[in-house]
Structures are given as structure tokens and as C-alpha cells.
Amino acid sequence: MSGLIPKHFIEDLISRVDLVELIGSRVPLKKHGKEYKGCCPFHGEKTPSFTVVPDKNFYHCFGCGEHGNALGFLMKHDNLGFIDAIEELADRIGVEVPREQTPGQRPPPSDALFATLEKAAAFYRSELMNTARGKDYFKARGLTGETAATFGLGYAPDAWDSVLKLLGGSDAERSRLLQTGLIIERDNRSGHYDRFRDRVMFPIRDARGRTIGFGGRVLDKGEPKYMNSPETELFHKGRELYGLYEARQASRTLTRLLIVEGYMDVVRLHQAGITYTVATLGTATTPEHLARVFRICNEVTFCFDGDRAGRAAAWKALENSLSQVREGRQIRFLFLPDGHDPDTLVGEEGREAFEARIKQAMPLSEYFINHLSAQVDVRSIDGRAQLGALARPLLERIPAGIFRELLADEVAKTVGLKSGRLSSMLGEGAETKPPAVEPVRTTARPQVQAGRRTLIRQAISLLVHYPQIADKVVLNPALSTLERPGIALLIDLIEELGRRPCANTGALLERWRDRPDVGHLATLAAQECLVDAAGAAKELAGAVQQLGDEAARLRTDFLLKKAGLTDAEKAELQGLLARKPPVDTGA
Fold this sequence. Notes:
Layout: H1 7-16, H2 19-24, E1 30-32, E2 35-38, E3 50-53, E4 58-61, E5 67-68, H3 70-77, H4 82-93, H5 109-130, H6 132-140, H7 145-151, E6 154-156, H8 162-167, H9 171-179, E7 183-185, E8 192-194, E9 199-205, E10 211-218, E11 226-228, H10 244-250, E12 256-260, H11 263-271, E13 277-279, H12 287-293, E14 299-304, H13 308-321, E15 330-335, H14 342-359, E16 362-363, H15 364-373, H16 381-395, H17 402-415, H18 421-424, H19 455-465, H20 487-499, H21 505-511, H22 518-525, H23 533-561, H24 567-578
Helix pairs in contact: 1-4, 1-21, 3-4, 5-6, 5-9, 11-14, 16-17, 19-20, 19-22, 19-23, 23-24
């Protein structure tokens, strides 16, 4: 959808997202009083200095200084753009991202492509309802009408031009059909024909539920058995997972995902109640797939057939997973009995028995060592040396950290080396060396820089930590004449938050994202505030009153000494003199 995203929506979104849940799905956190702590994901460390403050929707690392709100965390940690991060947060809480349409603005080309794919999906669904051939196939596979509706299943007629006739009436429409892969140009360039014919259809949806492509399965014998949409502007099979949208619709708080190989496996497992199932789209699991999965949950189980092809696919999945392995994440491997795939096995033994298999799935570390050990003779020195040689380049793909060290120690034990010896051979180099000058760390939080904390800085800090107290403040008109660093920011904060209240620190920083003072506000947010909201409101009122009195005194002195006052200045002076004489606070 085109148009700008309203700022108030972004602010509200940040306030509604559970920051602990979001960060905790990527970084192991432990509760520490009212806060949560863990090792910083932005720099290597063994002593936790990364803190999440849930009531302020703010995180900060006292080691490297990284800080921000939910949106900033996604952009930094998941390497997402601003819009993608907003979409990710909106998807987490199940809301649609609104857009402000500019008058005369034309929608982007992708909108028209989405519309074409949705029309095709609706056509395939109607054909399934009206054609016994497709319905009979799904019934024979044990699917219910409710499941078919949940996944938007359909049927592509046994004709060369069904979609072409329906949706390709103009050159522009045919162009969109080509761009989405729904039709193919004939070799002699004399026309086009439908890509999908006489196949049951599985629409592939993105995180927002929009159709981005299709998978089609033959009903009888034929090749290929499964056919996917080609790579397009909207569809990238190395990034998408079939069933992820449906899994997130079934549960907003996914704790694990089961990755299988086929469309029917996903649909049948969902029908059985195992709604956390997804599938790759005719390709091996990629690091990009897993990076996306680990944004959602910390536990992944790969499910493969127990035959040679299944085990080869499993090892490929392990190799592609290594760059995503780290402490706090669990990757397991489930191998099914010969002759079974998830679809048939869950139909035969039911949900409880199948989930019992998932719970007994083999951890990545165990599969790693077992697979490599099976290729050598571990009884001989030569074989154990070969095992070490096989393991070393794979271990080097794993990010440095506790998991890699533990797995390397386990491999070392298998090959007969001392604990830690293999880790020292992995060429960690500067990656794990401490800095030349180790920063001094204390158990207490860093306090404000040396020197007296000014009233202005104190007032701004209170507003950063408790934006909701701004409406308790009455500004002295003379305050704007006070020539002190930070006074303009303080006035701006009070006036802005008075007009539009802000829920918490994270939302305030988002509102100030594009302003030059956001860095100062973030620095103050990272410092400890020793009072509660009520105490902060009282302190803020006192500080602003003292600053206002000081401003009034200085302004009065200035006007009394000035020659040739304007009428406006005379009126201003009379108003100031009518006030109770302010006390010189020395602020």
C-alpha cells in the first residue's frame, strides 16, 4: 500500500509492543528487579551489560552504548529498513499499517501486482468449489473444507488460457500476469499460456496475508510433481516460508516452529492442531529463512523423511543454519520412520504422538557430532584427526560465543584433545581479544557527568523518563527569554507533550527521531532516574518554577535598564513587576 505512515500510529505501535518479548526472542534475558538483563547482541561480551526497561519501552547497553526502542532494535539487530521494521512490529500485534494518501499520488506498481495475484487466488478458489476433480483430491488426502478455506486452497482448470482470458484482457493486464509468473510467453512469441493447469493450488502469502505466489501440485502422474511461481518482484523463495502467515494467525506468541518440506505436510499438520508448522518452497533452508524465523521464536525443529534424500537435506539444513547458531537458540532435527512423511504419519498416529516425536528431536550439537563421526573411524588416530579436520571449518561458521566453545569442546573430547584446545585453533583472532584498554566497569550504573546537574538538564531528564508528567507543568511566559543551553528543548518538550501526551520513553524517542536533540534525550534515558512518577512530577514542577522565576528576574532587570521601551515591552514590564518578586535561586 502506498502513502506515508502516520506518526501517531508508529508511536502507538511502539507503546503497544512488548519490548521484553521482542528482544527476548533474539537475546536471552533474565529478570533483574524491574528490568531484564542479558549479553549485548551488538558487541561481544561475557558479563551482561545489556538492560531492557519494560515500563519505559527502552533498552540500553552500558558496555557499548547502544540504546533505543523496539523499532530501533529491529532496525539494528535484524538489519531491517525503517518501513520493514514497522511492518514487523505491526505484524507481531496483528494490526494493519495505515497509510496517508497524498492527493493525486499514484499507487506503486507492486499494488497492482498484489491485486492481480489476489484475483487469481479468488479464481482458483472458486474453481475448487465448482470442480469435483480438485475437491475429490483434497478429500482423499483427508482435508476438511475449513482447512481448505484457512489456506485459501484452489484448483487451476485443465485449460491453456483460463487465467489469461479472465485477467489478461489488455496489454497492461497481460504484463502484470507475466510479472507475477501466472502466464508464460510462447517460444515463438505468438502469444501466452497459463503456467498452472490441472493442478491443486496453494497460495503463498507474505507476513500481511497478501498472496505473493503459488505452488501447484499435479493430480495424476506428471512432471514436475510440484510447480512454484518463478522469482518475481514480490516472491523470493529463498526468503519466504509457506504457512508462516497461517501459523502467526493461529498464535500471536509463537515459541517454536516446525519446518517441513511440503505444502500438504503443512496443511495436514495444521489441521491436526500442530499449527506452528511451515515449509520451505522447493529449496533448502537458507540462512535468510532462519534469520527470519529467529525474529519470531528461539526454537526450530527441522522435520525430514528418514531416507537418504531426507538425511542429505537435513545436513544441508544444518550447514545453512550454522551462521544463525548462538546461545539461547535451539535447533533440532526430527527424522521420520521410513515410508512416512509428516502428512501420512500425523494422519496415522495423531497429534499427541507426533508432538511426542518433536519433543524427542535430536539437538543440532548431537546431530553434528553423530553425522561427522559416522564418516570416519573414531577408533583410530587418523580417523579422529579426520573428524577434527571435518569439524573445524564448520565450527568456524558459528558466531564466536558460548555455544561454539561448548560444541568445540565436545568435538575435542571425541577426537581426544584437551578441552579448549580446538577452540584455540579456530582462528578467532581479534574477534575475541579484549580491547587494548579494558573499560572500567562497576556494579552501579553510570551516573551523570561530574559537576552540578543543572535544573534544565534535570527537568529534561524527568520528562524523558516520565513523559506523562508534562501536563502537570505551567510555563512562565518569561522562560523563553532565558538564555541557557537546553532551555529551548525543555520548552519544546513541555509544549509538545502537553498537546499530545506520550506513553513512555520509547514512544518519546520515536517522536523525536528526526530531531537533532534525539541523541541527548537517548543519553538521558540511559541514565538512572531515582524517583517514581509522582516524585518526578513534583520535582519537575519545582524545577520549572525556579527556572521561570529566574527568567522573570533577569527579564525584569533587562527591561528596567533598557532605554526607549516599546509599548509591548512596557506592558510586559508592568506584568512582571506586578508579580511577586522572584527569589534569586542561582539556577
